Task: structure prediction
Amino acid sequence: MSGEEEGTLCTVSFSPDGVAVEMVRGTTILEACRAAGIAIDAVCGGTGKCGRCKVRPKGLFDPGDTSALAEEERESGVVLACETLVTGDLEVEVLPRSRIREHQILTRTLETPVVKLSPWVRKVLLELPKATLYDNTADFERVLRALGDRNLEMPIVTLRNMSNVLREGGWTVTATVADLKSRGEITRLEPGDKCGCLLGVAIDIGTTTVVGQLIDLLTGDVLASASEYNRQISKGEDVIARMMYGEENGVGELTDLARETVNSVIGRLLEDTSKERECPVTAVDVVGAAIAGNTIMTHFFVGVDTRFIRLEPYVPVAHHMPPRSGHDLGMEAHPSSDVLLFPSRAGYLGGDVVADVLASGIHRSDDLAMLIDVGTNGEIVLGCREWLVSCACSAGPAFEGGEVSSGMRAMHGAIDSIRVNHDFATSYHVIGDERPNGICGSGLIDLIAEMYENGVIDRKARIQRLQTDRVREGEEGLEYVVEFQGSLGEGATGDLVITDADLQNVLRTKAAIFGAATVLLRKMSEDLDGIDTFVIAGGFGNHLDIDRAVSIGMFPDIPRDKYRFIGNGALEGARLALLSEEMRKDMVEIFDQMTYIELSVDNDFYDEFTSSMFIPHTDLAKFPSFKDRGSQETAR
Ligand code: FES
Result:
């Protein structure tokens, strides 16, 4: 391609969206999707490995490598968006399963009442004596005198406009005073009495989604909740892919995308609240923010390098990011607002888990509790009032739609619960009550449990040769047909199947979680029976059937009434810290108290992981509810 040709603009239009963008010849269809604002599944970050970014283009293009696609897909004109170069005008259809659609983002929290409201920001009404020839003290000192605290500071942005505000208000002003930093600050001055409005935001920055709440700091009420996909997804599905992107391209782009997402969420919170109150609520009214995220998301949001988190010994730049202003972090908030970032315990155990613990209250209880937050990583905390230990295991993306051919996120079109009938046909529930496009995490757990119960797989999760058209030889060995193409959602290019390789990926994920939990217990000389409460945090618990998760050996076989769901613990922890000084102290204590165990160098973990690569486990004594069934199967 000549230099002139490379600079040629081509029109790429998307159907049925009716959106068109001008792209330079030689760019990829994936880049065109991003430019057009089409959310497309790109699990591998555009490296051609995951086979998720399926599109059907018409026009001039170079398809590149299509080896990640099935033969029948290639024959029907499907290509990978990340591999396909735009060489002329194009019309592109994004396959339904490759679209990221409405997601079941978890905004639900416990909303624990805060007994004593003590946000770090307060408003004070000041009625100042007017400056005269006989009292010509400078304006700033006049404000300090009225507040009775000569040690308060004032950011330069507030200082610049202070004199005008004092006079505009006729020497009656409202001062916003913040006590988060080592020295208190007057972060905002408003003319007149504005004491009736004091707002803050609580934000959970997840690898996949960003969730926020707008909080009335005077009453503690949640005024609005909003969520959005983390726009960094276009640079890689998981934290490793994004760190690698950051190493190659610098973290700037990832920082911008994280901030854009946070600001979009805040924008929606303000819009919803303005509608509700029938008066405008604007970004400058937001005077405080508490943010919980995993270590990598926190680093990107602040704008610092993550390279040494990815490499052994996995060291973050800082555990405690010092409080920053909204301006420093490019936030849609008052420029002098203080932002509290939850401290991260380790490279792979972040502030979101500290917030989970805070929300769960396990650090204040005499009972022994285990808390688990399952995402691409599984984070586990064990402990009580006296002590806390934690670890993280690489659970893999199987429960978030990755590494499983029929996997998808928990969004419309995903099977979230399923039964295998005696004739090996299936009955299932689909999110959004539509035809299925794939299976999400809770559906996969159900499916494996059901396949095992009905003899479709053995204890090693290997598909058995059965006299049914549901089990057949596929391109990669035996596969089980979950649903035939005719019953699937629009754009399906084949039957919905689960293969032996898929099952092994799910088995590895559940084994990593159970193995990590077992190692943590052993380190503290505790056992499964000693657990009083088992807390599940995060979106994963949303659709989960505990009995099924226990039956495949993912969670311990303890009385089911010991299980407790806390919803989005990271968001709840952020809300609590925003509203209560006691909770902010607890946050620091949890961080100080929590020991982190690195599993990647732990031989015990490897042994436990290997023992857990069975349904439910090699040691059936650990799963008394399923012991008989397992023994029968072993005998068979
Ligand atoms: Fe295109 Fe993964 S194959 S994003």
